[in-house]
Design a protein that fits this description.
By secondary structure, the chain is of the alpha+beta class. The chain contains 3 helices and 4 strands, in the order ααβαβββ. The protein has a single domain, classed as Double Stranded RNA Binding Domain (2-Layer Sandwich), CATH 3.30.160. The longest helix has 8 residues.
Length: about 120
C-alpha cells in the first residue's frame, strides 16, 4: 500500500481567512526551513538575495535585524519564501544561523496591499 502525502492545512497555521491588514506572524520566528516546509508545504515563490540588493518598502522590516547603516549588512544572504491562499499571502524571511536557515522576519499581507 503506497502512502499518499497530503498538503498541510495552512489555515491552521497562518489563518489566510483574516488578511485585511499587514501583520506579523510571530509563531514562525526562529523556526528552521525544514520545520517550515514540514508545517506549510512548498511555498508558491522562493527567492534569494543579498540584503543590500532589495531596499524596498516591502522588505523594510528586515532592516530592524540588519540595519543597512552598517555596510556589512548589505551582503547578508536572505531567503524569501511566500505562500498564497486566495488573496492572502504569507512571506517568511530566513537568515543563516550556524549553517541552518532560520526565520527572522514574517509578514501576512493581502494582494491589494501597496508597499
Amino acid at each position: 500500500m503506497s502512502e499518499q502525502r497530503s498538503e498541510p492545512d495552512r489555515s491552521v497555521t497562518w489563518d489566510p481567512s483574516s488578511c485585511e491588514k499587514v501583520e506579523k506572524v510571530p509563531r514562525f520566528l526562529d523556526k528552521s526551513a525544514i520545520e517550515i516546509s514540514s508545517e506549510l508545504g512548498e511555498p508558491a515563490r522562493k527567492d534569494s538575495f543579498k540584503l543590500g540588493e532589495r531596499q524596498d518598502e516591502f522588505r523594510i522590516e528586515l532592516q530592524n535585524t540588519y540595519p543597512l547603516t552598517d555596510p556589512r549588512n548589505r551582503d547578508v544572504p536572505v531567503r524569501e519564501w511566500t505562500w498564497e491562499e486566495k488573496d492572502c499571502n504569507l512571506t517568511l524571511w530566513f537568515h543563516q544561523v550556524n549553517e541552518e536557515w532560520v526565520v527572522f522576519e514574517t509578514m501576512k499581507w493581502n494582494d491589494g496591499t501597496e508597499f
